[in-house]
Automatic annotation (TrEMBL):
PANTHER family: CATION TRANSPORT PROTEIN CHAC-RELATED, GLUTATHIONE-SPECIFIC GAMMA-GLUTAMYLCYCLOTRANSFERASE 2. The lineage of its organism: Eukaryota, Metazoa, Ecdysozoa, Arthropoda, Hexapoda. It catalyses: glutathione = L-cysteinylglycine + 5-oxo-L-proline. Residues 206-231 are annotated as: Disordered. This is glutathione-specific gamma-glutamylcyclotransferase. It comes from Anopheles christyi.
Length: 231
């Protein structure tokens, strides 16, 4: 088995990808927390360790344009190896694996690489796995052209987000939906970077209280397998 090291970059041929009989797990920590635009067998709440979720990646397609890039999340290493990023694990069936990975490689083409880490399912379930699992995730490389980095303040990030719209909708909606998902799925868990950014946007966004529209085509896990479990 490949070594599971936090943040170690993997080649495009992920372990198990060549085995058509082996399922694979994929970790969502951004929009994949509340929607999945690929088929899966089950999804499971939980977390990974040793990372921080940050709005350090420009979006020139989904939540912005080349002229007005938006901001979306990526992961950076934490100095605390026990630091948690809460998200959603999706088990992809062996028969769908190659197609889903090809889809995600295209979706995350704007500067993301595959990594493999340990996923800790939580809370415990009597119907689903509870043991840590190797899981695949996509992390923005710091040398990619769209990596914005840590130099901007939250105020500056909020200003950029307020004026950005992409093919998946308004950039502020991305922040609101992610923050709402974190509160609903993991009550009591803190993500100060996300929640403080949300509050800055709510104070300045004239459309913050307007009824929110679903994301185009993908909101609500429309492509989810009928036999999936909510986890």
């Amino acid at each position: 088995m490949s070594e599971m090291a936090n943040g170690s970059r993997l080649p495009r041929a992920v372990e198990g990808e060549e085995n058509d009989q082996q399922d694979i797990w994929i970790f969502g920590y951004g929009s994949l927390v509340w929607k999945a635009d690929f088929p899966f067998e089950e999804k499971r709440t939980g977390y990974i360790k040793g990372f921080l979720r940050r709005f350090y990646q420009n979006s020139i397609d989904h939540r912005g344009t080349q002229e007005r890039p938006g901001r979306v999340v990526t992961l950076i290493h934490s100095e605390d190896p026990e630091s948690k990023v809460w998200g959603m694990g999706y088990r992809i069936g062996a028969s769908e694996k190659r197609k889903v990975l090809k889809h995600l490689d295209h979706r995350e083409k704007n500067g993301y690489d595959r990594h493999i880490v340990k996923f800790y399912p939580y809370p415990p379930s009597t119907e689903q796995l509870n043991d840590p699992q190797p899981i695949l995730l996509y992390v923005a490389t710091q040398d990619n052209p769209s990596f914005a980095g840590p130099n901007d303040s939250l105020e500056e990030i909020a200003t950029q987000i307020l004026d950005s719209v992409g093919q998946s909708g308004r950039n502020p909606e991305y922040v609101y939906k992610l923050a709402e998902a974190m509160r609903q799925l993991y009550p009591g868990e803190r993500d100060d970077h996300l929640f403080e950014l949300e509050q800055l946007l709510l104070k300045r966004d004239p459309l913050a209280n307007v009824a929110r529209k679903p994301d185009p085509q993908t909101d609500g896990d429309t492509n989810r397998s009928e036999v999936s479990k909510e986890g």
